[in-house]
Write a structure and sequence with these properties.
Elements: E1 2-9, H1 12-29, E2 33-35, H2 53-67, E3 77-86, E4 89-98, E5 102-108, E6 114-115, E7 118-119, H3 120-123, E8 134-136, E9 139-143, H4 152-160, E10 165-170, H5 177-191, E11 194-201, E12 215-217, E13 223-226, E14 233-237, H6 241-248
Parallel strand pairs: 1-2, 1-11, 2-3, 9-10, 10-11
Antiparallel strand pairs: 1-14, 3-4, 4-5, 6-7, 8-9, 11-12, 12-13
Length: 255
């Protein structure tokens, strides 16, 4: 399966340019799966410690509008997250989209940070704590949205459930990029699965300088692809059978 990860600009105008480039890349590479960053269609708003309903509504409206444009990435299946109002709660909702299914709910972010630049618990509620694998065409996929990357017990359970790909849409700063790649490698090894991640990137000075650097990591923890300012999109052709082998060899089989 040919998968694409990316780093997309956090500013609205620059994002529109990045989107056109991403569409061209996906078409050129004939990608079958595209992972977007966490809530990609609006500038990162949880940088503010105080919730503002008008900002939340703007973020939802932006995601509604851009969601209609996922068709431009077809026939690839597209994964990401978006802000929603659902069941009387504000949530960060993981989704996958495909021509044949339309928009499908995959997971609601459960582990929420609450600190400078990332006041997420002030902006939306935690999900119900379910981490159900999703069947995305030929791939069995698990979601670990940003901070959820560090829930290695869940990575182990994904491996036990036969998940082949774990996706981590994220919003993380440049200052901690190395730590996040280490976490992605550890998650891949723990689950015996491929790990994919895409991130926002800041191109102008901001309170939280978001660092980009999406990744594709093999079940044995090897980095197969890493985005950068010079290469915003990376596509790798995965052999999903490697995930099966990863879960049958050490350390996967132990668990």
């Amino acid at each position: 399966m040919k998968v694409t990860v990316c780093e997309l600009n956090d500013g609205s105008a620059a994002f529109a340019t990045d989107w056109e480039r991403l569409v061209a890349h996906v078409q050129s590479e004939q990608s079958e799966m595209v992972l977007l960053p966490e809530m990609p269609f609006y500038p990162w708003f949880a940088v503010a410690p105080v919730f503002k309903i008008e900002v939340w509504r703007e973020a939802i409206a932006a995601h509604d509008a851009w969601q209609e444009r996922l068709l431009e990435l077809a026939p690839a299946i597209v994964l990401g997250t978006r802000p929603v109002n659902r069941g009387g709660q504000r949530l960060n909702e993981g989704f996958y989209w495909a021509n044949e299914t339309g928009y499908c709910i995959a997971h609601h972010k459960y582990y929420l940070p609450e600190e400078a630049g990332f006041w997420e618990a002030s902006w939306y509620s935690a999900g119900d704590g379910t981490f159900d694998p999703q069947q995305c065409r030929s791939a069995r996929v698990g979601f670990a949205i940003c901070t959820e990357l560090w829930a290695f017990d869940q990575a182990r359970l994904y491996g036990k459930a036969g998940v082949q790909i774990i996706v981590t849409p994220r919003t993380t700063p440049e200052s901690s990029l190395e730590k996040w790649v280490v976490g992605g490698r550890a998650m891949a090894i723990t689950a015996g699965a491929f790990a994919l991640s895409s991130n926002h990137v800041s191109s102008v000075p901001s309170e939280v300088h978001l660092g980009g650097q999406g990744w594709i990591i093999s079940p044995d923890g090897e980095v197969s692809g890493l985005t950068s300012r010079e290469e915003s999109f990376v596509t790798v052709d995965l052999d999903l059978r490697e995930a099966v082998r990863g879960q049958l060899t050490y350390p996967g089989y132990v668990f």
